[in-house]
Amino acid sequence: MIREARPDDVPQILAFVRELAEYERALEDARATEEQLHSALFGPHPAAFAHIAEDDTTGEPVGFALWFLNFSTWKGVHGLYLEDLYVRPEARGGGHGRALLATLAQICVERGYGRLEWSVLDWNEPSIGFYKSLGAVPMDEWTVFRLTGAPLTALGSARN
Predict the structure, then answer these.
(1) CA pair distance 81, 20, nearest whole angstrom
(2) Against a cut of 0.90, is the pTM above it?
(3) Which of 39, 41, 66, 73 has a beta carbon 3.0–4.6 Å from 84's, enabling a disulfide?
């Protein structure tokens, strides 16, 4: 049901990314290309990793998880950050999302990583309920900040 992504999965992963972006009401922001994903996942120095959920009967891809490593200075070990988790609507409720998360949790346990974390939109109640049912807890005291576009360029161009 769950397997590591292969280079020939890149077009499917990109399709999943766009479906997820549409669900999150931000399709116009999903600009990644197949070439970028291929390089990030399968280039000489992979920056991200992915797993594919397949339908048990047909073997067709129905979802994916894309993740990368982070690091906790407090724990002194890596963690796993789940950038995207997506299961097609018609396949939801079939255990694919749970199986993807269980696979990532297994990677954490086997490799000694200290945590598995991700972000979820505050309006996405079905996902929030699902994550809580697995024992995940919201980090209510933390706020995500993001620097992009012109402000990122301006700060990155500034000299100290």
Answers:
(1) 17
(2) yes
(3) 66
Instruction: Enter the tokens of residue 109.
Output: 């346990």
Sequence letter at residue 136: A
Concerning whether 113 is annotated as a catalytic residue, the answer is: no
Residue type for position 93: G
What confidence tens digit (pLDDT) does each residue in 7-46 have? 999 999 999 999 999 999 999 999 999 999 999 999 999 9
Backbone angles phi, psi at 134, to 5 degrees: -90, -5
Beta-carbon contacts of 105 under 8 Å, excluding residues fewer than 6 positions away, are: 116
Which of 81, 86, 113, 131 is the catalytic position?
Answer: 131
DSSP secondary structure of the chain: -EEE--GGGHHHHHHHHHHHHHHTT-GGG----HHHHHHHHHSSS---EEEEEE-TTT--EEEEEEEEEEEETTTTEEEEEEEEEEE-GGGTTSSHHHHHHHHHHHHHHHHT---EEE---TT-HHHHHHHHHTT----TT-------HHHHHHHHH---
- In this prediction, residue 160 has a pLDDT band, given cuts at 50, 70 and 90, of low
Residue 107 has, within 13 A of its CA and on its CB side, a CA count of 23
